[in-house]
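Worked example

This section walks through a single chain of length 176. The input is the sequence exactly as stored; nothing has been trimmed or padded.
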Amino acid sequence: MKRFLLGCIVLLSAAAMAQPTKSPVSDALRTMLAGREKNMIAAFEEMPADKFAYKPTPEQMTFGHLAAHIVAGNYFFCSNVGDVPRPKIEEPKETEGKDKLVAALKASFEFCDSALAKADDSKLNENITWSDGKPRARALAFVTLASSWADHYGMAAMYLRLNGLIPPTAKPVEKK
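Given that input, the structure is written out below as tokens.
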């Protein structure tokens, strides 16, 4: 019975995934968001408050700077991907401490949740104004957002490991 039920779930899931979509790129980014948000926030919650000034080498950014950088990136890229106005907020500074930085990180991902809900692939070829003031296709914001999440989580994971901590995605799954 369990195998039959599992087989039905797999079959129905496959059928649902096979349905054509009008916005496969936007849908993929929305799917990625939940996991990236969960892991990124967990990584910054894992690091002790007194380690937010930590940086592996003098040339690298501090862990707090990384948090502030992710917040700024989320607001910039998610507003451009979703074609929604960027909220007028005061972005955090790297020295503001763990509580403020983690709260700002959470708020930026909440904004991404709402902005990406409005994203659709019909606008991929439209130009947006990039951070350097030059026009670029909106598609670049999609790709950059996804790669930024991966890059920044990798950095956070490295910083955690260098401080003897295990990144969220490397922790063993708890059995229920």
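What to look for: The first strand starts at residue 127 and ends at 129.
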